[in-house]
C-alpha cells in the first residue's frame, strides 16, 4: 500500500515498516539538502529527527544562527542598558528568529510529496534498516516504525563533551545550548575552553555586561596560530575587559546558595554566577547501534568514511560533524555535494578536492582565517613573504573607522617564488566576508599582486588588500 507521500508501507502485527529510497538520520545541513535533492529527483525520502526543536539542525536552532543573533545584539548594547533586561530582550529576539527558521525548515521538507518527516530517534537494527523510537510534540509522523532504505545518510551531528568532574552537572554549569537561555543573567561568567565556542561566548557575554574569566588549558589562546596573530586577538579580548587565565583547568565545581565555586588545578579557586563548559563536541554516534549496520567508527566515535563519504557499509554515507573532521556548517553542506555526486552524478567530487577552506570565529571584531600560518609554511620549507598590519594604521581602509571599531590586525603569508597566497588572518570588522574573497583567490590561483591591484568598492574592508599587500616583505 502506498501512503499519501508515495512511500511503501508494510504493516506487521508488531511494528509498521516504511520502505523508502533514501533515509536520512538527523536534520543536519548536509542531510536536509540531500533529502530535498533526492525528492526533486523523484525518490521517496524519510527524514528522521529526534527533536522538533531541532528541525533544521544544530546550526539553525542552537549553533551558528542563534549565537550570531546574540553576538549582534550584544555588540549594539549601549553602556547604560541594564544587562539583565537587555539580555532578556535579546534572547526573546533570538527566540522569535529561531522559531521562524525552525518552521521554515520543517516546511521545506514536509511540504514535499515524496518526503516523510518522522519524529523520533533512529537506531539501526540491520543493514540499511532502523527502528524509530517515536517522540511526541512535533509536527511529523510520530509512531513506532521500522524504516528500510536503499540509501542511508547518517547526519546526526555532534554533542558537547562535558568533562567528568565533580559538580559538572550542577545547575549553574552550562553547555553552549543552555547558556543561551541562562537565568538570571550572570554578572560573573567563567568559561572553560578557548575554542570557537569559548571565545565567541566570552566576547558576547562581556558585551552583554558580564565579568568574563576565560580558563585556558594551554599557554595561550589560538595555539595553532602564529604568536603575533594570537597575541593580537588576546590583547583585544583583554583590553575589552575579559580576564584570560592560561595554563589552568578546573578540578571541580561547587554549587552554593548564590554562586558556583570553580576549583582550579594548582589550588586556586574562582567564584562565578554561571560556568560555560566549552570543551569541544564529539560525534553523536553513541545510540545509533552502528554495529548492527556494519558501520565502523574510530576511537573518537566518528563514523569512518572514505574520500567520497562512503561508510564501511554499502549504501550508507555519513555527512557533517558525525564523520569527524572540521565541525562547520559549510563543511556539512559540501559533504552533501560529495555524496550527491557519488550517488547520482559523475562520482568525481571528493573531500580531498577542498582547497582554501575559510573559517571565522565571531568575536568582536571577527577573526577569520584561511590557509597556512607563517609557521606552517616555513615548517614545510617554503620561502615566504609576509605582511602584518594594524587595522588602525591601514589608511586605505576607512570602513572600520566609520564603524567606530578600528581594532585588529591583518596578516598575509605569500609564496615568495610564485606570489600565490599561502594563507591570511583577518581580524577586523567585515572579515567574515573578506576572507571568502581571499579563499576564492587561493582556489583560483590569483596572485597577491593581482589582489593588491584589484578594484574594490569604497569604503569597504576589502580595500585593505590594496595597501597591506603592497607591504609584503621576505
Ligand atoms: C554554539 C555553536 C555555534 C556554532 N557556530 C558556528 C558558526 O558560526 N559557523 C559554522 O560554520 N559552524 C558553527 N557551529 C558548528 C555547526 O553548527 C555544526 O558544524 C553543524 O551544524 C553540523 O551540522 P551537521 O550536518 O553535522 O548536523 P547537525 O546540524 O548537528 O544535525 C544533526 C541532527 O541529528 C539529530 N539526531 C542526532 N541523533 C539522532 C538520532 N539517533 N535519530 C534522529 N535524529 C538524531 C539531532 O537532533 C540534530 O538535529 C557552531 C556550533 C555550535 C554548537
Ligand atoms: N564560528 C564557528 O565556525 C564556530 C563557532 C562555534 C563552534 N564551532 C565548532 O564547534 C566545535 C566545538 O567548539 P568548541 O569551542 O567547544 O571546541 P574546540 O574543540 O574547538 O575547543 C575546546 C577547547 O577546550 C579545551 N578543553 C577541553 N577540555 C578541557 C578541560 N577539561 N579543561 C580546560 N580546557 C579544556 C581544549 O583544549 C580546547 O581549546 C568546533 O569544532 C567548532 O568548529 C564553530
UniProtKB/TrEMBL annotation:
Residues 21-329 form the FAD/NAD(P)-binding domain. The keyword NADP applies. NAD(+) binds at residues 193-200, 280. Binds 1 FAD per subunit. Its cofactor is FAD. Disulfide bonds join 59-64. This is FAD-dependent oxidoreductase.
